[in-house]
Each structure stands twice: as structure tokens, then as C-alpha cells.
């Protein structure tokens, strides 16, 4: 069986053709993506890098968060899975994969635009696991709006609540329960540096995540808690097929990258595992770009 260590040509490893036009209502479901994304279900091989860790992953039902949850579990972590209630079907599949890996999965549906719900998923983790030592924030809202006049204040607010405020609420609630050695990994985007004209609200939140993480990393370093960021380029996930891009952009999705194709969520797992494990022990306040070769600052 091939796994993430198999010698492979990255140009041809995955679909190079772009994706068929399709639309789901946000947040969309992995189960309805056509073609299906690869989250590492059949390939990610753990080697005990996170044995016994207590993890909380947001956006864990689909896309990047699903790939992260699978990888953390196969590396030996128990995982609380957060997602929106409408994503229960996707989340159940991830819970099954975590349990098949021999680890505990706890389902924690919650809308993170609500402060008490966001803080609540941390309390659930502490109640179920007795603490938290891996916090991976993957949940995010991205809705493409071509004209500024059409960007509603409600959307602007919801994008900031989901991508920035929730991060603050969750991290503030979690830190008192995180022992030295714990890690926080947040999710930014190539959009932080090269914003698309139709992603004004989203791109701004992603730069905020980079900056918040760098400030927090310095503040928390003396306590032995590291904070890092993964900044993906174009990855095939429900977010892209439910308004994150104009539908007409999907046939060329990802082809602007030097590798000439979109990434698959499975290709991000290694970045999150590295930043969550002790092997990155001297790395904090950094952003790891996984984007098919697009230049970053
Ligand atoms: P995805 O749709 O699979 O995941 C996003 C998840 O965010 C959803 O599954 C949902 O559970 C969660 N979410 C959204 N609003 C929420 C809310 N109010 N409360 C709770 N959860 C909420 O798509 P993805 O592409 O895997 O996105 C994961 C992260 O990766 C996001 O932060 C996104 O900004 C980031 N990202 C994605 C890409 C890409 O090309 N797919 C590129 C750069 C960054
Ligand atoms: Mg989802």
C-alpha cells in the first residue's frame, strides 16, 4: 500500500484537470463533493508521534480538518471533533475513522460564531479528556462576493466571528488547561498575502490569524505552549464548492500553482502533525505554507 512516505511525482500524484462546476449550500458536505477529496483515509500511516495526546480539532468533519483528525488519531491522539450541526453525517464518518485507529472520538457540534458555544467545546474537551494538549483550529468561513456593494455587514461579521473571534474565545478558554509542551496550530491561507478581489472579508481574517498567532506565540512561549500556523493554497474541499469560489472558477481550480494542480487535504496532514508534535519543539510563531509552490513573504 502506498502511504505519505511513498516516492511520488507531486505533479501527477493527484488530479491535474481542475474540477467540475457544482454548488452546495454552505457549509457543504464532503459526502457530496464530486469527485471525492482524499483525506488520507487509505494512505496516512501513523508512527506514534502523538501517542496519548488530548486533541481538539475544529472544522473536523470535512476537508482539511478531516485529514488532520485522521492523522492525529493514527499518530495516537484522542480527538474531540467540532463541526456545525448540519454536518453530522460527515462528522460521524470521521468519528468512525478515529475509532478504527483505536482512539477515542468525542463529537462536539457547535456554531463557533456564538461565544458560549465556542468556549463550550473547550469545556467538553477538558471534561472528557481531563485536559487539552493539542488545539488545532481549522474551522473557517469563506464566501466569495464579487462587488463590495454586495458584501453584507452580516457576512462580514460572520466571517470575522468564525475565523478570528472564535479563535480568540477558544484559545483563551483552552490555555489555562494546557500544560507545558502543548501546541496550538491555527489555519491561515495564501489569501493572507495575495488576496483575491472577491474575498475582502475572508483574506483580511487570514492575515489577522497570522498576526494573532505571532503575538500569542511570544506571550505563551515562557509557559511552554507553542503557537504556529499552516497556510494552505488551493485545496479541494466543500468550502470551495459551496461559495468559496465562483462556480465558474472550479474547472481551473488550483492550476495557477507551480505544481499545476489543487492540493488534496491529505497533503496537509504532515504539516499539522509536525507542528503538533515535539519534533518541532523549537518552532513557534511560524507559518508553514503548503500551497503548491506559490511564493510567500
Ligand atoms: P471545509 O468546508 O471542509 O471546512 C471548513 C469547516 O469550517 C466546515 O467543515 C465547518 O465545520 C467549519 N465551520 C464553518 N463555519 C463554522 C461555524 N460557524 N461554526 C463551526 N464550524 C464552522 O473546508 P476546508 O477548505 O477544509 O477549510 C478548512 C480551513 O482551511 C478553513 O479555515 C479555510 O479558511 C482554510 N483554507 C482552505 C483552503 C482551501 O483551498 N480549501 C485554502 C486556504 C485555507
Ligand atoms: Mg464541513
Topology:
Elements: E1 54-57, H1 63-74, E2 78-83, H2 88-100, E3 105-109, H3 115-129, E4 134-137, H4 153-174, E5 183-187, H5 200-220, E6 226-232, H6 238-244, H7 269-276, E7 287-290
Parallel strand pairs: 1-2, 1-4, 2-3, 4-5, 5-6, 6-7
Helix pairs in contact: 1-2, 1-7, 3-4, 4-5
The protein binds nicotinamide-adenine-dinucleotide (NAD) and magnesium ion.
Residue ranges: pLDDT <50 for 5 or more in a row? none
Query: Separation of termini?
Result: 37 Å
Superfamily at the CATH H level?
NAD(P)-binding Rossmann-like Domain
Bound molecules: nicotinamide-adenine-dinucleotide, magnesium ion
Shape: globular
Report on the biggest sheet: 7 strands, parallel
Give Rg in angstroms. Answer: 18 Å
The tally of beta strands, per DSSP, is 7
H-E string: EHEHEHEHEHEHHE
Number of structural units classed as domains: 1
Share in β-strands? 5-15%
Number of helices: 7
Query: Which fold does the CATH topology refer to?
Result: Rossmann fold
Structural class: alpha/beta
The level of helicity is 25-40%
- From the coordinates shown, what is the CATH architecture? 3-Layer(aba) Sandwich
Amino acid at each position: 500500500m502506498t502511504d505519505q512516505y511513498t516516492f511520488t511525482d507531486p505533479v501527477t500524484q493527484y488530479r491535474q484537470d481542475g474540477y467540475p462546476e457544482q454548488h452546495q449550500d454552505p457549509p457543504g458536505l464532503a459526502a457530496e463533493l464530486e469527485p471525492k477529496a482524499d483525506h488520507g483515509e487509505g494512505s496516512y500511516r501513523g508512527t506514534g508521534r502523538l501517542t496519548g495526546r488530548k486533541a481538539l480539532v475544529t472544522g473536523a468533519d470535512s476537508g482539511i480538518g478531516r485529514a488532520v483528525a485522521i492523522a492525529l488519531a493514527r499518530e495516537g491522539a484522542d480527538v474531540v471533533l467540532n463541526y456545525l450541526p448540519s454536518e453530522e453525517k460527515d462528522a460521524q464518518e470521521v468519528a468512525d475513522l478515529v475509532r478504527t485507529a483505536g482512539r477515542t472520538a468525542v463529537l462536539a457540534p457547535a456554531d463557533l460564531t456564538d461565544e458560549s458555544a465556542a468556549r463550550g467545546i473547550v469545556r467538553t474537551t477538558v471534561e472528557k479528556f481531563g485536559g487539552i494538549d493539542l488545539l488545532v483550529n481549522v474551522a473557517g468561513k469563506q464566501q466569495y462576493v464579487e462587488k463590495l456593494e454586495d458584501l453584507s455587514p452580516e457576512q462580514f461579521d460572520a466571517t470575522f466571528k468564525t475565523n478570528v473571534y472564535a479563535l480568540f474565545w477558544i484559545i483563551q478558554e483552552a490555555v489555562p488547561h494546557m500544560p507545558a509542551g502543548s501546541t496550538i496550530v491555527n489555519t491561515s491561507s495564501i489569501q493572507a498575502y495575495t488576496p483575491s478581489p472577491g474575498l475582502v472579508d475572508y483574506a483580511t481574517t487570514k492575515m489577522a490569524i497570522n498576526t494573532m498567532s505571532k503575538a500569542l506565540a511570544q506571550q505563551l512561549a515562557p509557559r511552554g505552549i507553542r503557537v504556529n500556523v499552516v497556510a494552505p493554497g488551493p485545496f479541494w474541499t466543500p468550502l470551495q464548492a459551496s461559495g468559496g469560489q465562483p462556480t465558474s472558477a472550479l474547472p481551473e481550480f488550483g492550476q495557477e500553482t507551480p505544481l499545476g494542480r489543487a492540493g488534496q487535504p491529505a497533503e496537509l496532514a504532515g504539516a499539522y502533525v509536525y507542528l503538533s508534535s515535539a519534533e518541532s519543539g523549537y518552532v513557534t510563531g511560524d507559518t508553514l505554507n503548503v500551497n503548491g509552490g506559490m511564493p510567500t513573504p
